[in-house]
Design a protein that fits this description.
It is a single chain. By secondary structure, the protein is mainly beta. It is 5% helix and 38% strand. A 4-stranded antiparallel beta sheet has the order 5-1-8-9, with no helix packed on it. A 4-stranded antiparallel beta sheet has the order 6-7-11-10, covered by helices on one side. A hairpin with a 4-residue loop joins strand 8 and strand 9.
Length: 192
């Protein structure tokens, strides 16, 4: 039988009643990039190198991009976006399915073109939460994919005209916190 050891110290998961818990994601804090645009993609510590519970679910260093690459930004409609993590599988083989869902304004060709361009592309998305945490969906070995798209023109004045997207991955862990910098792609040189 395998000799299993646990080197991570025991920690309490206590909290104070006065702790502020802010729900939701920032509608202007969603960034994505194809996995192929990275030189290195960081990940949380494994059980052999983790020093505490937090290091099992946090990416400390920034990802490194290839030249002239970086994250692109997506603006979500306010209060339509959220990150979910759900445990899946059977005992002894449990994983997490992490998802990012949100509404993008409109159903125009630019939105439709984005979804056509990246519909089968392995991606990494980082999402700023309103409490300041940054969550990551996708990894080098299990990229995120656009799994659902629903576009609606709305039926009458006042209805939301939007495209709702769901982006999902499957990992050994819940969507980790990303502690690195969010490097956006370089702006193109001005045409003179």
């Amino acid at each position: 039988m395998a000799e299993c050891t646990d080197v991570i110290p025991i920690e309490n998961l206590d909290s104070c009643p006065s702790d502020e818990v802010v729900a939701g994601i920032s509608e202007v804090g969603v960034y994505g990039s194809p996995v192929r645009d990275f030189l290195t993609i960081e990940k949380p510590s494994d059980f052999a190198t983790a020093t505490d519970n937090e290091s099992l679910a946090k990416i400390v260093a920034a990802h490194v991009f290839k030249a002239d690459k970086g994250f692109h930004k997506l603006d979500f409609i306010p209060f339509t976006g959220m990150v979910d993590s759900a445990q899946i599988g059977e005992a002894g083989n449990l994983s997490f399915q992490n998802s990012l869902t949100g509404g993008i304004k409109g159903t125009n060709a630019r939105v439709a073109g984005y979804l056509r361009r990246y519909k089968n592309e392995g991606m990494i998305y980082v999402v700023k939460e309103k409490n300041g945490d940054i969550k990551q969906i996708g990894s080098e070995l299990s990229p995120a994919y656009i799994s659902e798209v629903t576009a609606s023109s709305g039926a009458k004045a006042g209805d939301l005209k939007s495209t709702t997207v769901k982006i999902m991955d499957t990992q050994a862990y819940m969507a980790p916190n990303y502690g690195g910098s969010i490097q956006e792609f370089p702006a193109p040189a001005p045409v003179v």
